[in-house]
Amino acid sequence: MERIERLRQWTESVLPAPLVDFEVASADASFRRYFRARTAAGSFIVMDAPPSHEDCRPYLHVARLFRAAGANTPEILAENLEEGFLLLSDFGNTTYLAALNDQTADRLYLDANAALIQIQAASRPGELPDYDEALLTRELQLFPEWYLAKHLRIEASAQQKAVLDSTFRAILANNLAQPRVYVHRDWHSRNLMVTEPNPGVLDFQDAVYGPITYDLVSIYKDAYIKWDEERVLDWVIRYWQAARKANLPVSADFADFYRDFEWMGVQRHIKVLGIFARLYHRDGKEGYLKDMPLVMHYLRRACERYNALGPFLRFLDQLEGRQAEVGYTF
């Protein structure tokens, strides 16, 4: 309560008009919290990022980097790095997830493609941390550590560990061979807002410099909303065509690009299953459990299409009984 009071006092000191209302706007999967401060002059977002757990500097750096590229990130109106407080412009309440339907999807996703290409076209090495082998590997290891051991309570056999190791090596080989650009890292329907200009881009503080297909996977194999594969294919093709026109380093052959997209998806889905398990077992956030089946669906569908992922698919088959046992299926 003491921290909330300090946050409120700081907010009042930097607002352009007296505070009328102060309420929780949202919380994310980290220690950050967001509040909406309303005044007669309009509403603002206040970020609370405790310095003992969060560092605001990457947020500020990426916000300015992406904004300079032409993306619509929140304007930084005031900052207190010592306390971990930021005053930001307010994008409202309408997420892509809330607005997406059969009628709006084409417009919203093509807007997202255009914004992503702007960000990627501005890419240069040295501005963001590298999405390198060490980081990609740490992410993959969340699967055996949290999904297998903690969630399914499985200790992998020597043979299963060998399958995991060989699969992870094949995935990394593909990921690391892809051209590199700025990667938002959570470019999906909960972090894109319906705004003018569209979209408003949030939750970018973990951005890195890495594989060009990563953000495309995040939005079109989204853990929170599912589309027919034919429609997804169309949106990915439209991205690829626009990226080529923008001289981004995408493959000249769409089949090669789509294979990279699929393999990047396998890495992300393996990681996300581990993250969702960790959010539940470590952080008590059970809401993510309901999203696991869709992530597993994406993972299995990709593995079915590539012979090199066949052994891993059979390993997933072996897990099915335990998934049901822990209430994984709904």
From TrEMBL:
Keywords: ATP-binding, Nucleotide-binding. Residues 23-243 form the Aminoglycoside phosphotransferase domain. It holds the Pfam family APH. PANTHER family: N-ACETYLMURAMATE_N-ACETYLGLUCOSAMINE KINASE, TRNA THREONYLCARBAMOYLADENOSINE BIOSYNTHESIS PROTEIN TSAE. Gene3D superfamilies: 3.90.1200.10, Phosphorylase Kinase, domain 1. This is Aminoglycoside phosphotransferase domain-containing protein. It comes from the Bacteria. GO terms for molecular function: ATP binding. InterPro entries: Aminoglycoside_PTrfase (IPR002575), Kinase-like_dom_sf (IPR011009).
